[in-house]
Structure formats: structure tokens, C-alpha cells
Write a structure and sequence with these properties.
The structure is a homodimer of 260-residue chains.
Chain A lengths: L2 E6 L10 H9 L2 E4 L1 H6 L8 E4 L5 H13 L4 E5 L9 H12 L12 E5 L4 H8 L1 E2 L5 E5 L7 H13 L3 E5 L8 H11 L7 E6 L7 E6 L12 E5 L5 E5 L2 E5 L11
Parallel strand pairs in A: 1-4, 1-5, 2-3, 2-4, 6-13, 7-8
Antiparallel strand pairs in A: 8-11, 9-10, 9-11, 12-13
């Protein structure tokens, strides 16, 4: 059987990788990933053939993984977080789709058995670090306008604001792009209190993890980099302080039927 | 140290529970959960004191967990999926908040060290089973109107439709409630093609897992029960068929810059 595992390795901490993901990596002879992820997985990936391609070479990475698997080498395509959320899994199926439409010349891809194994995504890591920020309806929005027109992203932010969803921003900034986050903040401020709690979570679950809780009014792209998740509470999210510990939670509903 | 672990055990398959979650369960003397979840975790929970409370007794379960931990017993409050997503974690912090406001009489709760450990949520399990349905911006909406007014839920569905988010419906039906899902479908149909792919995933990752891919027009609450996740694609989600395998993926963006 020609096998490709498409594996989410979680945010960073090795104890947050599911056994299913670890087993898929162990069963593979070849690993395809952005180099940094393989470093985080150091203990799990020794003795494997590593295929490292730089950031930006996403299509090439998915093609390589399909080619390796089609050649008979059991292969794991790995990304951090959940590989199904803003990550490589969708590209694998986009390539498969193109082949099915006759727009690629790789009929051998169609013989590859594909198994996708999800992982803990950044929004979940961030929410858990500060309590229960995703306790009620939420959405995710990528602020990268590389593949999505900015007008589409604006529309989505406006809808998230109107619907009072907790919002997690992925790709909040990049090396070349940092104005979108402040623009998004201003759009949310039109429909949500200035005091709405905001989580700024950097390098979540890694040794240099930094967690900061601020407010929507004080959110500033200058405090955010490529390794940061930004989550904005809904209008009922609460920031509470118990001695030296701070928490943010979003209640389960709006009616507050909980008896006191 | 008085310790409460708040643990998400994933959708069901034991190989989808993170080592961090397993370690927290192992470190605990007392486990608080809905009985069914403990059955799924059979191998991990032997030798522990089990505190099973029925569905509906959520507040009591969170109180019990805080009380046990405050009494010095290391305790794990467990739910399936991600305990931070429509689950028990937020209730723990709601109780803590009430105590901080003086609306409860449990000052001992404030001395409990709380650690939240997320798990793989149903939307992730479902998306991975059919490929990469959450490949771009998505949201989750609970259709339970127990704590949220139905008008608020309707507004949120309309905003999700207007923003073209992939939508995962949690609590799509209950024993007493089943009309909301068809109403939600009709709202989405006003702004999304009838052919939009829909995933109906029942008992995800469990031995009796059932996966069905249908269209938005054909989605019917009669095919859905309490153990089912329903995810609706966005306007660009694609349903593809490769021999005996079917997949649904949502492309990464809208501009389709991928070269062919």
C-alpha cells in the first residue's frame, strides 16, 4: 500500500502530540516538513529521511510528499498545530483535485492512501493557557492576504463582529505585513467594548512561551510577531484575577441561567 | 498543592488523547465526568475514584471537581473533545468568578491550582476524516437554545453565512429539540449554493463511526442525532471522488494563485 500520513503535531510541546500522530511518524520512512517543526520533534524523527523545504514552498512540499508516497515510500507530511487548519492538508487535496481534473500529470498520486491526523491548534493552546476563552461560539480568521483579497477578509471581520463571535486571528502579521491587525482591531471596536479581553499568545507551549492578556483598545500589532496567536473575546468574555493568576473565559450562553 | 486538571479527552479513540491529558489523568486520584466518557477511557481510569454525574448536572459536576481539589484530592474534570470548546472548562471559571465576586461561599476554591489541557474537538475529527474541510476561515455555532436565545443563534448563523465561513454545528439536535438544524440550513441556503458540501459525522473515531457527505440542500435533521457533528463548507469547498474514496476540502484562499 502506498501511504501518505498528513499529520498535525500540535503547538510545540511534545506531550501535546497525539499517540496517533506519533505512530504515523514512526511508521514513515520519509518526513516532509518545514525545518523548524522537525527540530521541535527531535526525539521522534531520528532515523528518518528528512525532506526540508523552506517557508513559502508549500506547493512543492505537498507535491514532494505525494511523489514520495506514490513511489512506495511511506511518508508523513507534518506541520505544527492542526495540519487541517490553515496548513498543508488542504493543499494535498487541492493537488489531488487538479489531477482528477486532468490539470496535473501525476496519475500515480491517485493510488496513494491518504490519512489525515489532526492536532491541537494554536487557538486551543492559547484558550487553555488563559482558562476557557473558546467556551462559546467562535471563529478563526487568517489575516494573510497572500491568497485572499483584503476586501474578503474585511467582510469576514465585520461579520464576526456583528455575530459577536470570539475571534482567533491566525497569521496576524508577517515580516512584510503588519497593518492588517490594527485595522481588524478597529473594525471589531465598532461593535465590541473597548474593554473586551484579548489574548496575545507567543510561542505557545514552547520553552519561550509568552502569554499576555490585554484589552481590545490596547491591542497593537507592534506587540505581535509571526509566532503569535491573537484571540479576541466576545462581548461577554470575562477577564478575572485570582491572586497571581489571571484567566479569561467566555460563558456558555447569554441568558445567565446559572443559579447563584 | 491543591490541583484541578481540566482535561479534554478527544473525540473517543484512545490514540487521539494527548500524553499531557493522559498524564493529568494518571496524576489524579479522583475523576469527575459524565459516565460515558469514563467508559471510553476504560484503560486509563482504573484505580481512580470515579464521580459520575448525569447529563444536565454540569454545574454540580464543576462544583464537585472544585470541592474535591480544594479538599486536597488531586482531581481531573474530564470531557470528550476539547473541554474548552462548548464544555466544562468555562463553567469552572464561571464558578471561580462568582466566588471572586462574593456570590458563592467557597473561598477554598481560590486556593486550587487549575490547569486546562485541550483535546481534539469534533470539528477537527470530522474535517480530518473527509480531508481538509477546515482549510480556511471557519466558525462554530451551538444550536442549543438552553442558555442562548434563539434570536442570538439566528443572528450568528446569518453572520456566518454572510461572511462565507465554513460552519460546524455543535449540539445540532437533542432529544427534545430538532427543528433548529433545518432552520439553520435554510438560512445558509439564502447565501450559499445548494450544492455546498456538508459533512455528517456520527460517533467520530469510535467503533461505530459513520461518515456521510451530502449537500446543503439535502441536509435534514432527521439524519442527525446527539452524537453527530454537522459541518457545512464555504462557497469554495469542494467534494471530490477518487475511486472509492471521497474527500471534502476548503482551499486556502479565494484567488486561486496556485500554478497548474
Amino acid at each position: 500500500m502506498k501511504q501518505l500520513f498528513v499529520v498535525g503535531a500540535g503547538p510545540g510541546d511534545e506531550s501535546w502530540i497525539t499517540p496517533a500522530a506519533s505512530q504515523a511518524i514512526q511508521a514513515s520512512s520519509d518526513l516532509v516538513a518545514y525545518g523548524l517543526y522537525l527540530e521541535l520533534l527531535a526525539q521522534q524523527v531520528s532515523g528518518k529521511v528528512h525532506h526540508e523545504l523552506p517557508l513559502g514552498a508549500e506547493t512543492e512540499r505537498a507535491e514532494l510528499a505525494l511523489n514520495l508516497a506514490a513511489s512506495g515510500r511511506t511518508t508523513a507530511l507534518i506541520s505544527s498545530g492542526d495540519i487541517g487548519i490553515y496548513a498543508m492538508a488542504t493543499l494535498v487535496f487541492e493537488l489531488l483535485d487538479q489531477q482528477l481534473q486532468g490539470r496535473r500529470d501525476h496519475p500515480e498520486w491517485l493510488d496513494v492512501e491518504i490519512e489525515v491526523i489532526p492536532g491541537i491548534s494554536a487557538m486551543q493552546a492559547g484558550a487553555s493557557r488563559v482558562g476557557a476563552m473558546l467556551g462559546h461560539d467562535f471563529c478563526t480568521i487568517s489575516l494573510s492576504d497572500l491568497l485572499t483579497p483584503w476586501e474578503t477578509i474585511v467582510k469576514r471581520i465585520e461579520c464576526a463582529a456583528a455575530g459577536d463571535f470570539v475571534v482567533s486571528f491566525y497569521n496576524p502579521v508577517s515580516r512584510k505585513r503588519n497593518w492588517q491587525l490594527n485595522h481588524a482591531r478597529d473594525l471589531l471596536l465598532q461593535q465590541r467594548p473597548a474593554t473586551t479581553p484579548v489574548l496575545i499568545g507567543r510561542q505557545l507551549t514552547r520553552s519561550d512561551e509568552q502569554i499576555r492578556i490585554t484589552t481590545l483598545a490596547e491591542l497593537d500589532a507592534a506587540d505581535v510577531d509571526m509566532f503569535t496567536l491573537v484571540s479576541v473575546g466576545n462581548s461577554e468574555s470575562r477577564h478575572i484575577i485570582n491572586g497571581t493568576r489571571e484567566w479569561v473565559y467566555t460563558p456558555r450562553g447569554y441568558s445567565r441561567k446559572l443559579t447563584t
